[in-house]
Amino acid sequence: MSDSDKVWPTGLTEAESEEVHRHIIQGTQIFGMIAALAHLLAYIYSPWLK
């Protein structure tokens, strides 16, 4: 009845969970780069530490 490849509690296989993890990490990295760029642009246009 239960599939031995599925991991509790998500119901994903190990390969599926690694793929989801890879996408989450990639999305976080992209978000971080955009945030860093936004902070750099904000500093260039209105330097708050000078």
Automatic annotation (TrEMBL):
InterPro entries: Antenna_a/b, Antenna_beta_CS, Antenna_beta_dom_sf, LHB-1/5, Light-harvesting_complex. Keywords: Antenna complex, Bacteriochlorophyll, Cell membrane, Chlorophyll, Chromophore, Light-harvesting polypeptide, Magnesium, Membrane, Metal-binding, Transmembrane, Transmembrane helix. A bacteriochlorophyll binds at H21, H39. It is found in: Cell inner membrane. The chain crosses the membrane at residues 24-45. GO terms for molecular function: bacteriochlorophyll binding; metal ion binding. Residues 15-49 form the Antenna complex alpha/beta subunit domain. It is a single-pass type II membrane protein. Pfam families: LHC (PF00556). One of its GO terms (biological process) is photosynthesis, light reaction. Its main location: membrane. It comes from the Bacteria. GO terms for cellular component: plasma membrane; plasma membrane light-harvesting complex. Antenna complexes are light-harvesting systems, which transfer the excitation energy to the reaction centers. Belongs to the antenna complex beta subunit family. This is Light-harvesting protein. It comes from Rubrivivax albus.
